[in-house]
Amino acid sequence: MAEEHHTNKGPAGSSQGAGRGEQTTRQQAGSSSSGSGGNLQSSGTSRRTKSVKRTAGESGQIWDEATASIRTLKENTDEYVRQNPTKAVLTALAIGFVLSLLRRH
Predict the structure, then answer these.
(1) Looking at residue 56, what DSSP letter applies?
(2) Residue-number span of the structural domain to which 31 is assigned
(3) What are the pLDDT digits (tens) for 55-94?
(4) What is the mean pLDDT of the chain?
(5) Which residues of 41-54 are buried (b: 16+ CB within 10 A; e: fewer)?
(6) CB under 8 Å to 16, separation ≥6 — which residues?
(7) In this structure, what are the phi and psi dihedrals at residue 102, rounded to the nearest 5 degrees?
């Protein structure tokens, strides 16, 4: 009776079997391609990680240089104000006056 059941399906039964076979083949092909794609993704991720670390190192270096530069500017300004207090006060007053004029208009 199982044979009769199989023969009653006819071409529709065989196409379903073929569809399943194709699906299995696609799944196998997909898993093998995703395996190699996983390697590509891993190498891409490691490249990105290296790039991020390098960029972080460079930005850290830039930050350190900027901090040192600002510290030097502050020290130089403090020294200038101690050596020329009158000039520094008059300059600050002039800047304040100009900013107040600009704010009014």
Answers:
(1) H
(2) 2-104
(3) 777 888 898 999 999 999 999 999 999 999 999 999 999 9
(4) 73
(5) eeeeeeeeeeeeee
(6) 9
(7) -65, -35
